[in-house]
Design a protein that fits this description.
397 residues, 9-stranded mixed sheet, 8-stranded mixed sheet, 10 helices, binds flavin-adenine dinucleotide
Length: 397
């Protein structure tokens, strides 16, 4: 019998599987991924930022795992010769009313143990990012950039070297749980295993529902669209330029990111995706959309934040409006400097009462561990989340 089945070949599933095999190489482990390749979804379409842990509530799983995961990731990249750069980032306040929020962020960074954070005057800001518009800022030296697809592929390679099997193009369609084992049925095969670990990202709620009658959260997919700066305009951005986040919507607010694989991206926005893996505006899955709209929690979020949602939607359809949002940070940028970039879809868990689950969420049952919510900074934190989930799983052997 198989000991562990991990569902999902994104960075969280791969890191979890890797930690299990590194700790107990004798366990028989397989990882099932529905696509023909690893890291095709959130992991392969993110901003590529190695987050420092600046934003997160001290003591939260995000704060703990981001800071620990940050160091594990950097060591991993060094050991495995994966290119990365710790270029630092600036967080920029563009108006007086953002100054208290900027100050709060500085305090939070210190509470989270970040060293050498620097408050920046307007002049100091210009020394780091000469084209930025801001009245004050913070410099975060720890922030870096990396290509998470390369990282995930490396986790996969090491996992295979340790004797685990990665099975691609194996979509899990049902799970039957009994007292000491579960049967996982895919579109091609069925497998019996002692422990199942669900790391299905945008479908984590669907996989959770395969073994639970009532699931109290739903994944709401938010598409984040990017533009790229034309090559001749890349000089406008040295490294990473971020706005002061709105505490109600920490993942909103377009920013500029120099990418590890080259180029500078501007974005992303956040619009409701009409399909969980819908990377284009025209991608619609009526069943999935109807489920989202019918979810009581989503209706509450929509009723409360419709204005913000429409703003994001408007920027999605109007390049002029998107450019205007970017000009807040970089006034020189013009519409013609931006070319269409890619898009990623965030898996955001939303509970029945309309709470967008902020922290990482892991639910344990007898034979199954569900990683229910692993939004940003889960890529940065992957080795630490992997260690946490692996430890929960290994207790059973
Ligand atoms: C636009 C965007 C920008 C981001 N920027 C950053 C950043 O800069 N830094 C950072 O740290 N984090 C960032 N994040 C967050 C980070 O990318 C994700 O938190 C992380 O990739 C989640 O990894 P995962 O393995 O949980 O999910 P995924 O990478 O989505 O992997 C889940 C996998 O499960 C598979 N799967 C689903 N259902 C099934 C099934 N039934 N059977 C088999 N397989 C299945 C999917 O095909 C997929 O490969 C960003 C995310 C987005 C979307």
């Amino acid at each position: 019998m198989i000991d562990v089945i991990v569902i999902g070949g994104g960075i969280v599933g791969l890191a979890t599987a890797l930690k299990i095999k590194q700790t107990n190489p004798s366990l028989k482990l397989i990882l099932l991924e529905k696509e023909n390749e690893l890291a095709k979804h959130q992991t392969g379409n993110n901003s590529g930022v190695i987050h420092s842990g600046l934003y997160y509530k001290p003591g939260s799983l995000k704060a703990i795992n981001c800071i620990k995961g940050y160091h594990l990731l950097i060591d991993f990249c060094k050991q495995n010769e994966i290119p990365f750069e710790l270029c630092g980032k600036v967080v920029v306040a563009t108006s007086e009313n953002e100054l208290p929020l900027l100050e709060n962020l500085f305090v939070r960074g210190q509470q989270n143990g970040l060293e050498n954070l620097r408050k920046l005057s307007q002049g100091e800001l210009k020394e780091i990012e000469p084209h930025v518009n801001g009245i004050r800022g913070i410099f975060v030296p720890q922030t870096g950039i990396v290509d998470y697809k390369l990282v995930a592929q490396k986790y996969g390679e090491l996992l295979t070297n340790l004797g685990a099997e990665i099975k691609l193009a194996e979509k899990v369609v049902s799970i039957k749980s009994e007292t000491n084992q579960s049967t996982v049925v895919t579109e091609k095969n069925s497998y019996v295993a002692k422990l199942i670990i669900n790391c299905a990202g945008l479908y984590s709620d669907k996989v959770t529902a395969m073994t639970r009658e009532k699931v109290n959260y739903k994944i709401i997919p938010f598409r984040g669209e990017y533009y790229k700066l034309r090559k001749e305009k890349e000089y406008l951005v040295k490294n990473l330029i971020y706005p002061v986040p709105d505490p109600n919507f920490p993942f909103l607010g377009v920013h500029f990111t120099r990418m590890a694989k080259g180029g500078v991206e501007a974005g992303p926005n956040a619009v409701l995706a009409f399909k969980r893996e819908g990377y284009k505006k025209s991608d619609i899955n009526l069943g999935e959309l109807a489920e989202t709209l019918a979810w009581p929690g989503f209706q509450k979020v929509a009723a409360k934040y419709w204005r913000t949602g429409f703003g994001e939607m408007y920027r999605s359809f109007s390049k002029a409006a998107f450019t205007k949002a970017l000009q807040k940070l970089l006034p020189e940028i013009k519409e013609e400097d931006l070319i269409e970039g890619g898009a990623g879809v965030r898996a955001q868990a939303c509970d029945r009462d309309g709470g967008l689950v902020d922290d990482f969420l892991i639910l344990e049952e007898t034979n199954i561990i569900n990683v229910c919510n692993a939004p940003s900074p889960a890529a940065t934190s992957s080795l630490s989340i992997g260690e946490t989930v692996a430890a929960l799983g290994l207790k059973r052997f």
